[in-house]
Amino acid sequence: xxxxxxxxxxxxxxxxTTQTGAAGAGQAADGSSFKDMLMKSLGEVNSLQQxxxxxxxxxSTGKTHNVGEVISASQKASMAxxxxxxxxxxxxxxxxxVKNLKV
Length: 103
Known about the structure:
Elements: H1 34-61, H2 67-99
């Protein structure tokens, strides 16, 4: 069975397909782990934040006059960060649930 997660607004869709073969669970079809996928997503969110900051700085210093691009970059970074916070919240909920299991 395969789990597919698509992150929209972060460039190319990030796809995580879990294998149950010799590689074991937690490995994506391309051989990367969940940690690698998560770190890549963190890097993409950071890149979007830096791009939005740079565009805002360029707009405020007069290097660009396209307010639409500045707003678009800011909204994209905001949405990506909000999604990242929701992923963190879900991971924390899952950890708390596993921690409270009685063995």
